[in-house]
Amino acid sequence: MALVYLNPDEEYSITEVAHRIGASVKAVHQEVTRLVENGLLADRKVGTSRLVRSVQDSLLTRPLTDLLAVTYGPLPVLTRSLAGLDGVDQAFIYGSWAARYNGEPGPVPGDVDVIVIGYVDPDDLDERAGEAEAILRREVNVRRVRPTTWEKQDDPFVATVRSRPLVELHTNTEANTGRDDT
Fold it and tell me: What pTM was computed for the model?
């Protein structure tokens, strides 16, 4: 469900769903059949393939998508990815994904933009972004800014980011600045 509801513009074959989620074709076929019968997924045949997609005109669509986004989407994936990373003071998802998450209409985002405030090693951020991309199957763009730049708000990029919707990633880090202030 997460795969199809978090990518509502896509259709997937049963085999593709099985491959992407690491399940057997038989198990996916059975589950898809139940979900189609209950009106949560739509399907169609193309040759010998059965394609499935999310149902977008149901009263359940928005709440179900929201639930799946907070349990399987960028928010939990990026929170786990950045948790415990030295030097992270704060982190936020911004841009189109944050706007859609906050209810702004628009197309499904093709990527996820993340801003990390702190003194984090850029190589560590790139590695974590790559891991998140593999899970989310979409590009993850991470931008690091120093806390002083974030607080001053005189940087045009920071001012723009702060003026738009933000979704905080609770990385559960203690004040790990990654530097010695003594």
Answer: 0.72
